[in-house]
Structure formats: C-alpha cells, structure tokens
Amino acid sequence: MEHYKKSFIKKEFVFPVITAIIAVAITAIALYGYLEELPFFSNELKIAEIGDHQIKELEQIIVQGTVKKSDLPEISANTSLGSVGAGDTVMPLIYEPSYENTSNNFCLSGGVLPGEAGNAFIYCAKANGKDIRVLKKGDTITVSTFYGEYTYTVYNTFTAKSQEELKDKALGLGSAVTLYTDKKEAPGISGSYFAAYCQMTSGARVAE
C-alpha cells in the first residue's frame, strides 16, 4: 500500500511540477533572447554604414572639389559618416545618434554637414573630450567622411552655459565646425560646454 501511495504522489504531483519548472525555464530563455534583439533592451543601437558601392559611385560625381548634397546617399539618424581627430583623440562620427550611441563617438547634430556652408556642430561626451578642452587657436582637427577628407583650423575656443550661448559664440562665415563637449559636471570640471570654433582649410565643398 505504501508503495502505491509513493508512486501516486510521484505521478500526480512531483512529475508535473518538475515538467512545469522546465517549461517555464525554456520559455524564459527564449523570451530573453528575443528581448535582447529589441533596440530598447540593448545597451547600444546599431549604427548604419554607407556601402562601398555608394562611395565608388560618389567618387565619380565629385566635380572640381565640389560634392553635390543631393547626390549623397540618404543619411539618417545613427549613420556613421567617418571619424574626427582632435589631438590624440580619434573617434567615429555619427549623424544624429540616439543616446545609446553617444558614448565614445563624436556626434553631428543639425543639418549642416562637414564641408557645407554654415556651421557643423559636432559634440562628444565630456569623458571623451580631454583633447577638446586643451585646443588653442591655430591647432588643427581632421574630419574624415565617406565623401572626402577635411582639415579645420581652430579660430577660437570658449565655454558656454547653454546651447543658445554656444550657438551665438560660434557664429561665423564660410564652412566651419564647432567641436564641443557636453555640459555634464565631472570631478574638477565645471558644468559648461567646452568648445572650439574651427574654420575649414581644405576639403571638397558640399553644395546643394
């Protein structure tokens, strides 16, 4: 009798419970794998790259040092444009990145591209901006894009407390880049934007 009672307990209670636990574990693992693929669950969003075939096509339509903006491939948010070099710091340049893609990258905000008339605003996290903070008039920065190589000379450096002040101080003529850090505070570093206003000295001009 005791034997049948134990067998009944195993059959009716123990085995179903074990089976249910295994099923839940398998479902949880599968669900986690699915969620990892979703952008909001990932620590870093995917960055789009301009294809080699698009670059080769572009090389054929660059005429006398001028790039026609309408001939460029579509540039959307989180697109890699190339890289920026300032002092010993060289990092990828990302167009209109999402927050997850701002770390360890230079970020281009606004519609003005390097080489285009106007001011291209390029920023990075203050943690990555040590070389920006020590730039001085006459220093050189480089911007490498999929449509050309650019050199800029620092015209002046400044700090700003707001985006409005930053843009007011960076007003200028011709093709320029304002390279700046975000305004997060850090030990020994104030909560201001550190910026360098730079004028283009070489590279293909981008025209409409």
Structure explained in plain terms:
This protein has 208 residues and is α/β, with parallel strands linked by helices. It is 26% helix and 33% strand. The chain contains 4 helices and 10 strands, in the order H-H-E-E-E-E-E-H-E-E-H-E-E-E. The strands form 2 sheets. Strands 2-3-4-5-8-9-7-6 form an 8-stranded mixed β-barrel. The radius of gyration is 27 Å and the shape is globular. It starts with a helix and ends with a strand.
- Strand element count: 10
Quick check: average pLDDT? 78
- State the end-to-end distance: 92 Å
List the secondary-structure elements in sequence, H or E: HHEEEEEHEEHEEE
Name the helicity range. 25-40%
Radius of gyration, CA atoms, in whole angstroms: 27 Å
Q: Oligomeric state of the chains?
A: single chain
- Major beta sheet, specifics? 8 strands, mixed, barrel
Major β-sheet strand ordering: 2-3-4-5-8-9-7-6
Which structural class best describes the helix and strand composition?
Answer: alpha/beta
Low-confidence stretches: 2-11, 28-43
Percent of residues in beta strands: 25-35%
Number of DSSP helical runs: 4
Shape: globular
